[in-house]
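Slide 14.
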Amino acid sequence: MRNTARHATIALSLAALFTGASLMPQVASASAESVAKGKAIAWNRKQGNCLACHVMAGGESPGTIGPPLVAMKSRFPDRKKLFNQIYDATKSNPETRMPPFGTHKILSNAQIEAVIDYLYTL
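Slide 15: predicted structure.
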């Protein structure tokens, strides 16, 4: 009986690994606190500084190097892909001008998650 349960757990884990699925429950919506924190990071000229390169609703003096940050949840329905893009965009585009925020420890994983919570409201 024990081995059957263990084998089922291993099989489920392998299936998730190979399909890219997550065993973690998906969060339905971000907290207002996390969205506010993400916006503060994204707009902070010394931290996330997304406005230096991207147009964002309500942002002052945005740059136009990167694409406008609109319809982000539709453009990146897979949250992990957006996380990876912010963490290190050079993995998918070695010629990008976007800094590798995670790799260079500009932002922590938790800060990147908060930025995504905010971006998903755009």
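Speaker note: Confidence is low (pLDDT under 50) at residues 1-28.
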